[in-house]
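Quick question: who can interpret this fold?

. . .
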Amino acid sequence: MELFLVVKINDFILNAIDRVLKFYQIYISPSLPSSCRFEPTCSQYARDAIRKYGLLKGGIMALWRLLRCHPYSRGGYDPVR
């Protein structure tokens, strides 16, 4: 029973984070100037990384990607591996 509850809470948190990122992509990002130097965009990369690796590792990967996304970065194609 306890493991089931932990899994459900984890799923709820991952789903909530995914919805926040999707909300950003649909409603906030279009009103901002395009600045992401990577493909897929940093928000899509975060969604993909968290889905594939979970909140801890995927979140760290997304944070590292955001830190690399700046005007002096080469950018380019950088999918979640």
Q: What stands out?
A: The first helix runs from residue 2 to 28.
